[in-house]
Design a protein that fits this description.
321 residues, Rossmann fold, 2 domains, 8-stranded parallel beta sheet, binds nicotinamide-adenine-dinucleotide
Amino acid sequence: MWIVPEAMIAGLMDRKASFEAVAGVFASMASKSAYNFPVIREAIGHADALYGFKSGFDRQALHLGLKSGGYWPGNMAKGLTNHQSTVFLFDADTGKCRAVVGGNLLTALRTAAAAAVSVAYLARKDAKVLGIVGAGHQAAFQLRAIVEQRGFERVIAWNRSPEKLASLKAVADEIGLPFDSVSLEALGAQSDVIVTIVSAHTAILKDIHVKPGTHIACMGTDTKGKQEVEAALVARASVFTDEIAQSVTIGECQHAIAKGSLHQSAITELGAVINGTHAGRKTEAEVTLFDGTGVGLQDLAVAAAAVDLAIAKGVAIEVDF
Ligand code: NAD
């Protein structure tokens, strides 16, 4: 069995490898050769923790396993990150544990890669302005991954506490892109691509804010009750997702579905666009929206890539298990 510790991931996985792993598994999901198992998420009644696991099987790549972890709000005080996750991979032929992989950085990389894949396949080719809603841990990963997909010339952002945008500005400075903190109205009026990555429970970005032709990647809503954008905006858009079952229950689409303004049959898996079985964006004027709910198969795909790289570099730790 191989162990790839958290501290090793940064030296192994980059954005390109994450993009390829995520695009590949989205394609496999759409062609029905990979599927996710039902998600388990429990408040365990200890340390205020929310614990769960996401699992699945990719029959083509033979990725079988799970990501286990969750949210421990007291961790910061202990010098740890609040989100903790570990990926376990199993040999699909024998069921033996193949690898244990640190999952914290991988989660950020695979989430940003999902948004980047959606931009690559759905945003207008002439997109120049990237709008970001949010300034938490994931936001900088989103910024770095998305700007690589189009010839972006400017980044604008909104956060509930605008002073927290300083860390995002530092990333934009490093990349060499002008950065401005703006109102939601200005963000919607000027952005060609918008990513929302907050943990809100009411709509922040409204339908009226968003101009025609925009691509929106909604990445923060991954639980029942969470919401980032107005249901009317989802209803107006051509909607794509990683997995329809999650989109309508725990993703951004849950609200438009509940209101009856969106039908499940109108949601397309992003993998279908990657496979060429759906055209994706059809007009320059339409709003496209990717509901990135975060699936276990994404975690398995990036973890398997990290294990392969660690073995190839001779740094994976081998344990008799
Ligand atoms: P974080 O705690 O570091 O940052 C939270 C962000 O949300 C901040 O920008 C904060 O200002 C904002 N926010 C919180 N409550 C808000 C409210 N009521 N109104 C407006 N803004 C509010 O979190 P993070 O690690 O950056 O994650 C952001 C979100 O992304 C979380 O909801 C997380 O669960 C989700 N997430 C999704 C995936 C996926 O695959 N889809 C993966 C990882 C994280």
